[in-house]
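Bump. Still looking for VCBS repeat protein structure tokens.
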Amino acid sequence: MRSNTRPRAVAVLLGAVLALLGAAVGPLLTTPTAASASTVGGTIARSEIMARAQNWVDRHLTYDMNGSWASDLEGSHTYRRDCSGLVSMAWHLGASLTTDVFLSRARNGNGMEVIPKDGLKAGDAMVYDNDGGGTGGHIELFSHWVNSANHNDGAYVYSFNSDGQTVQNPYANNNVGKLGRNSNDEMNQFTFIRYKAVDGERVSDFSGDGYSDVLGVNAAGDLMYYPNNGIAIADSTARRLATGWGSYSHVMAADFSGDGAADILGVNSAGNLLYFPNNGFNISGSTVLKTGFGAFTHVTAGDFSGDGYADVLGVNAAGDLMYYPNNGIAIADSTARRLATGWGTIRHLMAADFSGDGAADILAVNAAGNLLYYPNNGYNISGSAQLRTGFGTYLHVFASDFSGDDHADILGVNAAGDLMYYPNNGLAIADSTARRLDQDWGTFRHAM
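Sorry for the wait, here they are.
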């Protein structure tokens, strides 16, 4: 899925904002405002797909299948102004496909694939073709569920429908007063598809090149960055990002801003959860996301919702596994949800996309030292698979896509202080494929 020559992601800010705000339409998420730079036909982050679709909304482009084509946000490529042109543009394809081509390619696994309805993530699409070919079908871009806990309540979408109308979108009514929202009955008419080149979520990928790096806080309290150089790290390429992190109780690296490169989050000695944006492979300044995290036994970050923006998860003092969605680079108690109880005895908590479906799963090391995998089932977890035993003596265990194949791997620091790498081999890990990346990590306070 990912090309090894993919250019490093950079932030692209959209200057335009919605002019058609209208009345409030329910509990909607923040309008996408950033995208990471993809190339035509190349890998693309979910956050970029959404920002590209929003760009056509912001420009008030109207539906005209036979009219002049419209440029994308870079202005370097044009697409047909209809429903399939919108999705072609959002996915950054090299041509404006038709609905029957989308459906055919997905059914044949040609760069796309058919997925179950409940597997929809931001940037996926839903298509039907009612004439067997030609222009009679329809396609829409999925944004998010109306109710993540009950998919039968329908979904918010980007949709381009008929002559003279601007794009229906999830955040405000268009020029004819239509909001991009589908009922469950409407959704059941569609086949749900995914672009195979959608980039995975970024945990610890500080460089934004598609391969997770390793970060840690050493005994001196220095926040260190070890670039991933060919599935390897070296002290010679390590760089100190900041000092004074020795008192932080939790430190994590994940793409909170949605720009394609991991940011740093940490819980300081006052119990405040702080967000440090990644500014050109450096960090500077912080924002307090929330207070009261001092009593949490574990805090981690990963894109649990699959929308391209890392969320926050943690185990509170009561042993509840809590999920805090990222709502516009912010989290709030009002949107938090309890995923499970009885997690007070776990040793390590991780959120990363182990399954490769674009949304973070949950992994944990329990009191017995067993490494467990909990698949993300529509923003919930149910049941677990045991990946390996013997992790009880590990000082640190974390998950990230170190190999760059869109499936999170397992890394950890063993009792000897060795930093070990366990590749994800078909949703499994094995000692036979494990490799030591570095040594002398026994004194590190945090590793990620």
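Helices lie at 46-58, 83-90, 99-108, 184-187.

Edit: fixed formatting.
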